Sequence to fold (539 residues):
Amino acid sequence: MRHKNIIIALALGMTALVVFLPGTASMSLWDRDEACNAQCAREMLQRKDPIVPTFNFSLRTDKPPLEYWAVMASYSLLGVNEFAARLPSVLFSVGTILLVFIFGSRLWGTEVGLLASLIMLSSIHFPIVARAATPDPAFIFFLTLSLLLFLTEKPTLGYGAAGLAVLAKGPLGIVIPLGTELLYLLFSEGKGKVKKAFPLKGVSLFLAIALPWYVVVDVKTHNEFFKGFILYHNVTRFLRPIGGHRGPAFYYVLVLLVALLPWSPLLLQTLYHLFRRAKECKGNHLFIYLWILFSFALFSLAKTKLPNYIMPVYPALALAMALEAKERVEKGLNRDLRPAMRGTLVSLGIIAILLGFMGLQGTFASPGLSLMAGVILLLGIWGFQKTEKAPLRWFTTLAFLMAVLLTAIPHFTVPRLEQRKLSPSFARKIRSEIGKGDLIVTYPFSIPSLVFYTNHRVIRERKRSSLKKFLASHGSSRIFIVTRPKKLRAVYRVWKGKVRVLERGHSLYPHGKLALALLSPIHRQAPGRPGGDHAKQRH
Fold:
């Protein structure tokens, strides 16, 4: 059995790589998070400073360093590019898939471990985040490892993994596993056993891993990192919505129903039976139940809400769904799974229709992708008729088919998306003409990917009045400005030199028309430019 599980784990790891890698090299970085994280790692590498994170050559307090360290290592091996920025996320995500399989197999059998890992691998949301240069994959990996180590009664190692989770994304790295463990001990063994959650070796290991960097970075930034990261990005985000990211109490119910497609029907059935039998839950089942409940309650109470926040609960939900399916089969209640199987087919049908609609509209998908989804749906219907007595086999096969679809999506969508991402093109134009002392400005929005693709400081002017002051005080400089074409009117009124529009297009982010213009002082001839460029060109 052990030899068989090793072979399955290797096959799972290879399958996860095949699903997660497409698009990581061919797609330019997304604004905002990907570009900020990738550039932050580059600046730390250029400064040879692994302690203080900076973006746009200023202190960045959004995230701790683990993601940056991983990307710095990747840059050192592969150079600075999109693939190197995303590779750590891919590897951490593959690791999470393997953790779910390994621990699920040890605790509940190979069928549970395999189905749970395939559910995560083939759901809509997880593969998207696995391809992104963000801290979430590293955070989910170490948080999942910590919780599963606590579950298997290895609290010292669990605290060590929690320390790395704290370095990946902050205090939640210890709050979620410790909160889950405390609740588990309280409900399973009583108040007197709660102290078991605080082994001296475990707590010491956690502090040795998590604390030193936070102390050093706070000293080096004169308490600015603590105020920005802990007080603003953690405490304030929990107490009030930041950046308009708010939602109702049931926000994450809706997120989970979409994010876990096509498995949402099985999720609903699982949660229904889980809550009905809540008082009967014991042992490992109780721990999984509390992991789900505590994480969901914590994120739902927070005032700032984003879809990625709820991702730490995905491994627990995947394991719970696999357990639900196995228990139904073991009890001879195969027919109880028929509604979930039908609902999964309906979900696949919805996905195929949406992809087809986007293909016909000529947006981000293509008819070929919709055709592939339709074929998978037909195969699922055929298998549904043939495997009434083997629902676990049907779920597993459908998961592999869904994985094929998710692997193909970047191939069909990346070329269309890249046509609407203007930062790389604008940056190439800027790099071909920029000289020493030249400035880059965006107005009124920020475009973090422009910083990455130019590797140059980009100044953001939010208001017309501040833009006018800036232009008036830099009249002797050459300035590259990215703005809306209609916003150039404000530039024409203030700038006394030449205004030459270099490029324009329709952008995905910031959404709408964008223009790149070069402002040159009237007394300074741009190198290699014909005299006809002296007049303002109003395009």
Q: What stands out?
A: The longest helix spans residues 391-418. Confidence is low (pLDDT under 50) at residues 528-539.
